[in-house]
Amino acid sequence: MSEDFAPTLRPVEIAILRPTQMTVGFREIKRKRGEWCKRAERDGPDFLGRHMIPVILGPKHTPYVIDHHHLVRALHEEGISHVLVSVVADLHHLKKQVFWTFMDNRNWLHPFDADGTRHSHDQLPKRVADMKDDPYRSLAGELRRSGGYAKDATPYSEFLWADFLRRRISAKLVEHDFARAVSKALKAAGQGDAAYLPGWCGQSGDTDG
Questions:
Q1: Which end of the chain is more exposed for a tag (fewer CB within 10 A), N or C?
Q2: Which residue range is the domain that position 112 belongs to?
Q3: Environment class of 73 (CB within 10 Å of its CB; exposed 0-12, middle 13-18, buried 19+)
Q4: Strand order through the sheet with 63-65
């Protein structure tokens, strides 16, 4: 997401943040934890100040995270208890059903499990720590960093790529030979049948006659 958010000035406990997606990539979490460890002593507070978490205030003023789930989870696992948030919209006055309908229509929800199956919003995890692993989300993240596709503002673009890869690369390969899975993903990403995906960098089959 690329909107400019106006940050609140008060820190919020990670423990009360509610996810709007069911899964994350655990390899991605591990990578972000490593990045945090490298800079925690050097510029940890500044880093947190520059990476505010976008949230929606829902019923009872509950903050719902709509981006940077991996970063929040990584910080939580590193023992960080608070983050700064950017309030994208204050919807605390809405009734629950209206709230969830609005969230869904704005594409601020991604209630899909690690198999790519959609669930009801009431099955979303209640805490950041409860999100499950989707190995293909990690594969999609590594594919982007390897040049397989460009960063794109489309919400949940990495999950769209994850679902594309899920149908083409075996879970066994992703688990046991991640490097080879990335290599196969790079080849698949350059093909024309991936052209509908955000950030696609392949070559069109059309030529000027």
A1: C
A2: 7-133
A3: buried
A4: 7-13, 82-90, 53-57, 63-65
H or E element at residue 33: helix 26-50
Cβ burial of 120 (10 Å; 0-12, 13-18, 19+) is exposed
Whether 93 maps to a domain, the answer reads yes
Task: Give residue-wise pLDDT tens across range 22-67.
Answer: 999 999 999 999 999 988 888 888 888 888 999 999 999 999 999 9
Task: Tell me how many domains the chain contains.
Answer: 2
Give the domain CATH number at 15. 3.90.1530.10
Residue 6 is predicted with a pLDDT of 52
Is the Cβ–Cβ distance between 104 and 118 less than 8 Å? no
Residue of 125, 128, 42, 39 whose CA lies nearest to 85 = 128
Q: Are residues 102 and 60 in the same domain?
A: yes
